[in-house]
Amino acid sequence: MGSGRNSKSARNARAAVATKRSTPWAMIAAVLVVVLFAGAVFGYAFLRNKENAERAEALAPFTPTAQNRDPAAQIPGVQIVDYPGQLHVLPTQRVAYTHSPPFGGAHDGYWAACNGVVYPTPVRQENLVHSLEHGAIWIAYNPEQVTGSDLDALKAKVEGQPYTVMSPYPGLDRPISVQSWGHQLKLTDANDIRIDQFITALRRNQFAYPEVGASCQALGPGQFDQDNPPPFLPTPPVSEVNDTTIKSETEGSASVVPDGHAPGGS
């Protein structure tokens, strides 16, 4: 009888050992991975929400209001010039702008498409200045100085965004220049918060551009072809103004009807 009890005890001991050996470590590891992944996802979402909230708070003072019509005036480095609107020139004419890139003055009668368009090649500036007259923001960059992640950071501010356009600008004296009608800001860093401040303050700011409500949609071939835009040409010097092929930035062509005065003008 004693030996039977001993055998039963031995079997129970072996069963206990077997139970200990069958601990589901693989399942535990899988659960741990899921928990860690979920924690990382929630942590990332929390940080992004915090960053977005901080960004919105930082940009709030640059939202235009009836009491603060030009918030861009408080951005360090912004240049402001008062330009008259609706001075149009022919597609065969050039304008002797006094700023590079230009941000106001006489311009082509056809605007450049500017609803989130990133042009891969330099575009005729007379068309882009017309886009500014419609309330758009134009981000110009020196293609020899802005590449890689910096270029991607600028594109992210433009692609899919209404009344925003971007193009390379050969010979630009700084890596980046941001324009709206009558406003310009030159920078070296694509991640400079002042770019976002400028866009917040001036994109479609009804107090800061001449043709409120004007379109940024593409006009199409024969006017301005977004897929085949007129190429960039360097600004002619003021000394070459002749009132025929080269116009002053303060004088339009009498043969070009301003927007809003012809069917489909804006």
TrEMBL record:
<keyword id="KW-0812">Transmembrane</keyword>
<feature type="compositionally biased region" description="Polar residues">
    <location>
        <begin position="241"/>
        <end position="253"/>
    </location>
</feature>
<feature type="transmembrane region" description="Helical">
    <location>
        <begin position="25"/>
        <end position="47"/>
    </location>
</feature>
<feature type="region of interest" description="Disordered">
    <location>
        <begin position="218"/>
        <end position="266"/>
    </location>
</feature>
<keyword id="KW-0472">Membrane</keyword>
<feature type="compositionally biased region" description="Pro residues">
    <location>
        <begin position="228"/>
        <end position="237"/>
    </location>
</feature>
<protein>
    <recommendedName>
        <fullName>DUF3105 domain-containing protein</fullName>
    </recommendedName>
</protein>
<keyword id="KW-1133">Transmembrane helix</keyword>
<dbReference type="InterPro" id="IPR021454">
    <property type="entry name" value="DUF3105"/>
</dbReference>
<dbReference type="Pfam" id="PF11303">
    <property type="entry name" value="DUF3105"/>
</dbReference>
